[in-house]
Design brief:
There is one protein chain. The chain contains five helices and four strands. By secondary structure, it is of the alpha+beta class. A four-stranded antiparallel β-sheet has the order 2-3-1-4, covered by helices on one side. The longest helix is centred in the middle third of the chain and has 18 residues. The radius of gyration is 17 Å and the shape is globular.
Amino acid sequence: MSDYRRWYVTGGSYFFTVVTASRRPILTDEAARGWLHEAIDESRAQKPFELFATVLLPNHLHAVWILPPGDDDFSSRWAAVKTAFTKKYLASGGTEAPVSESRRKKGERGVWQRRFWEHVIRDPDELKRCVDYIHINPLQHGLVTRVSDWRWSTFHRFVEQGEYTKNWGVGIEIARDADVFGPDQFR
C-alpha cells in the first residue's frame, strides 16, 4: 500500500493538480464549469482561502491556493470541492468512470481520481514558476497556439493586472503533453 505524506504549512501557498477519473474530458463542458465554480465558492464560504491562480483543462486543473494564517487544511477543502461537483454532475445525468469494488464500498464515485498532487510553494520565485506553469499549460497540451486564446484561466486577470503581456508565451518552445512541471521539478 502506498504511503502518501503531505506537507502542511499553516497559512501556506500550495500548487495543486487535480485530475478526473480515467482522465475523462468533462471539465470544460459549460455546465461542468459552472458546477466546479459553485463547488469552489461553497468550499471558500465554509473555509476561506485565496484562489490565487488557476487553469481548467478538459481532464484536470491546476491551482495555487493561499490559506489563511493559522490554517493548513487544504485536504478537506478539496474533498468538499470534489464532493459538491460530483453530486451536481451526477444529478444532471453525468456519467462516471468504472470504479473498483473497494472504492465503491467506501462510497467513492468515478468522477475524480482518488487523490491530488500538492506542493508547498516556498518563495516568490517558486510562486512565479507555478503561476507561469498554470498559464502555459493549455499551450503545453496543444489546446491552443497562444496562451491568451485559452478562456478558462486566470491568465487574463494577470494581464489586466500588468503581470503579463497579452502575447506572453508566444514563441516559447513547449514539449507537448510532457510532464515538465511536477514532483521531479522540486527535488
